[in-house]
């Protein structure tokens, strides 16, 4: 693991050096081997040749920017974030704050439409359908990755993780984070404070403005292990703390799919992950 400290004094933009890159066009066994290693050693990797069409990503990005550019009163019609909806500054119930605004929605078309239709303005179907497409692609991608991981771990049912996400009751989420550009140079600010993600797997893509404290080409996705996957693999995969900072003179946008089991799922180590060496 090459993570460096996330203390507030440490404002380096790169928290990881040598973050593994996984190229989905490689042969499956190579992908599986290297992904497993990345999840065990880093809990994070960059994903290229992921198959999510560039047009889909670009269109969601531009519609999302258009959404965040609207007056606050319009955006608030998708909220309040209880916890789903439009929110600003307040990240969670425990008082965490950040220099961002966000839209957090259940990752399925009816739930997206239900919140987005209230915003008004241009045809809400456009934004809603685009977000729906993005969710379909990133959900499929997350499930493929979870299946490759299941295979790599030698699970009897390689779908042990992905079936929790494909379940109709899955609590998967889509989150758009918008970090507005600084009006003046206020130096580095915390956009999204240090945390680990509670879900199974996170698939994040951001525009070309740096901020997540890991560097990557803008066409790549960041994928990270969440707390639930750490628990189900009995600690073999690591869920790593991360944060986003705001330094740029341009707005930053990240678009995230959180692959999540249903709220009824009991999260505990898979029996195959409990061994004499790793009790
Ligand atoms: O917006 C980002 O780059 C990071 C946000 C994040 O870590 C999260 O929403 O869980
Ligand atoms: Fe996160």
Explained architecture:
By secondary structure, the protein is α+β, with helices and mostly antiparallel strands. Helix content is 29%, strand content 22%. It has seven helices and ten strands. It has helices spanning 28-41, 54-68, 72-75, 109-116, 124-152, 162-166, 227-232, and strands at 21-23, 44-48, 85-90, 97-106, 173-179, 189-195, 201-206, 221-225, 242-246, 252-259. An eight-stranded mixed sheet has the order 1-2-8-7-10-5-4-3. A hairpin with a 6-residue loop joins strand 3 (85-90) and strand 4 (97-106). Helix 4 packs antiparallel against helix 5 (124-152). The longest helix is centred in the middle third of the chain and has 29 residues, at 124-152. Residues 1-16 have low confidence and may be disordered. Fe (ii) ion is lined by residues 195, 197, 242. Residues 169-261 form the Fe2OG dioxygenase domain. This is Gibberellin 2-beta-dioxygenase 2.
Portion in beta strands: 15-25%
Given as residue ranges, the uncertain stretches (5+ residues, pLDDT < 50) are 1-16
Q: Outline the biggest β-sheet.
A: 8 strands, mixed
Beta-strand segment tally: 10
The side-by-side strand order for the widest beta sheet comes to 1-2-8-7-10-5-4-3
Structural class: alpha+beta
Question: What general outline do the C-alpha atoms trace?
Answer: globular
* Helical coverage, percent range: 25-40%
Defining key terms:
binds fe (ii) ion; 7 helices; 10 strands; single chain; 279 residues; 8-stranded mixed β-sheet; binds 2-oxoglutaric acid; alpha+beta; two-stranded antiparallel sheet; globular
